[in-house]
Amino acid sequence: MTPRGSVHILVIGSKGHARARCVDWLQPYPNVEEFDAVILNMTSYTQAVIDKLVAKGPGPNPVRQLADTLQTLLRTGRNVYAIFVPKVSASPLPTQKGAFFQPIQNNWDWLPVYPILAAKEGTSLGPLVESDLKPYFDKVGEWRYELFVDFKTTINDAGNPSAELAAAVIGGYLSKKTLLWKMRGVAYNKSQNMISARIASLSGSQGGIYLLPPPTKCTPHDGIEIIIDITSGTRQAGFEFRPEWWERVPVPMVPRIEQEIQAKARVVEEQLKAVEVLKQQKEDAESYRRLLSETDTALVQAVWRALKDIGIETDPTEKGFPADLMRKGEIAVEVTGIRDKVASDSPKIAQLMRLKEGHSTGEKVVLVANTHRLLDPAQRKGLMDFSEPAASLFQSQGVCALTTLTLFTLWSDVMTGKRKPEEVKSLIMKTVGILVPPQ
User: Fold this and answer.
1) Which of 123, 301, 261, 135 is nearest to 195 (CA)?
2) DSSP secondary structure code for residue 288 in this structure
């Protein structure tokens, strides 16, 4: 299957391949018959591309011309490799008087016959019919569909038409040229169903269309580079072609080395799991920084967690209630995040008054404010967090007011053992006015 000598390759639908001529689906193609092999990246042949081709109208269409030209390649023993995807139909044209026949029906229009695709995922891979393709299938990983012969239009690998197809030809309903194509498997899964196939002519020519599943262990671009390696017979640095029997030849020290690899891999796997746990713990711990950055629901959640850690249990209240967190008969907490200081005319002050006058049953009222929240916490020190009138109001109403920076500092002291939880809890519950942590 591998050509020898200088090989001229055309790649359609992928750019950046130094050893090939590359074109987009939408641009005019060069004379395809001048190339030794053609590679089609169907992952980039999307519905949007199809619709743009259709929008060009009934004139010359590069994909339609490609369908005719490829048959010349196959007839003369050259190959076409397609990174294959399920059928995508063109968007319907608007119905109008004199509308022309849609030049492209779907992304399979360039094929002489259509296979049948069944959506099914897996990773199993049996022996390859053509071992030269092994480097590519090593990068396939997970395939997402199985291929079957459509016996209405195609002959199976044994060369036998179905009774339905044979009857149709004998009866004159189908042209005998329908029987010019056959499809055989290139790669099979454990169920012996095709996951890759080759469409070829019954005339005996060596050329074929290879339908290859998209690689999942590398990009389609890198997959195409491997196909170029295979097609041209060249090898990139570090890449080695190996025959299909390679793994079956016993080498004395290989089993021992494989066992050591597996043992070390298990250790690495456990270590990686432990690292993932630590990463999650780190992410969870870092979320306490939201005390200094957030507002609204995210800030309320962060305040709830910090209070819980220092021994103050609260529950979220219903929307519209004049406090965000509450434990009936013990504590009511209102949370706010603002860009400046809390002033006496702040809506939060009125909300606290409404809480004390109409909803309080003797709870300690606490205001936690993320003041100057857009500033770096280091730049907030020394700034006024509560206006003097607001501070006087807190004093007269028995409210404890503190910033989230103060709460974060007290929480950090508890987490590091500098303060006991009950000490911090008592400080919040007994403070009247603005809470300033004692040194």
Assistant:
1) 123
2) G
Domain 288-434, CATH class in plain words: alpha beta
> 401 in helix, strand or coil?
strand
What are the tens digits of pLDDT across the range 19-47?
899 999 888 888 888 999 999 999 999 98
Summarised one tens digit per residue, pLDDT across range 156-197 is 544 444 444 443 333 333 333 344 678 889 999 998 999 999
Length of the chain: 439
Beta strand ranges found along 128-246 (DSSP E):
143-148, 181-188, 194-201, 208-212
For every residue of 298-365, which 3-state class applies, written as one string?
HHHHHHHHHHHHCCCCCEECCCCCCCCEEECCCEEEEEEECCCCECCCCHHHHHHHHHHHHCCCCCEE
**Interatomic CA distance for residues 265 and 258, integer angstroms:** 10
pTM to 2 decimal places:
0.49
Residues 335, 32: Cα–Cα separation, whole Å: 70
List for the chain the helix, strand, coil content (%; round to 5): 40, 20, 45
Q: What is the pLDDT of residue 246?
A: 67
* pLDDT given at position 150: 72
- Confirm if 366 and 400 have CB atoms less than 8 A apart: yes
How far is 377 from 406, CA to CA, in rounded Å? 11
Res. 416: pLDDT tops 70: yes
**Closest by Cα among 136, 160, 141, 138 to 211:** 136
pLDDT in tens, 109-134: 888 888 889 999 999 998 888 888 99
* Cα 181 from Cα 200, distance rounded (Å): 6
Q: What is the largest CA-CA distance in the chain?
A: 103
Q: Which of 63, 68, 10, 12 is nearest to 34 (CA)?
A: 10
Looking at the DSSP assignment, which residues form a beta bridge with residue 370?
337
Query: Per-residue b/e over 256-289, b at no fewer than 16 CB within 10 Å?
Result: eeeeeeeeeeeeeeeeeeeeeeeeeeeeeeeebe
CB atoms within 10 A of CB 100: 11
DSSP 130: S
Domain with CATH 3.40.91.30 in the chain: 288-434
Find, among 439, 437, 363, 438, the residue nearest to 402 by Cα. 437
pLDDT exceeds 70 at position 325: yes
Residue 142 in tokens = 């997970």
For residue 292, pLDDT over 80 is answered with: yes
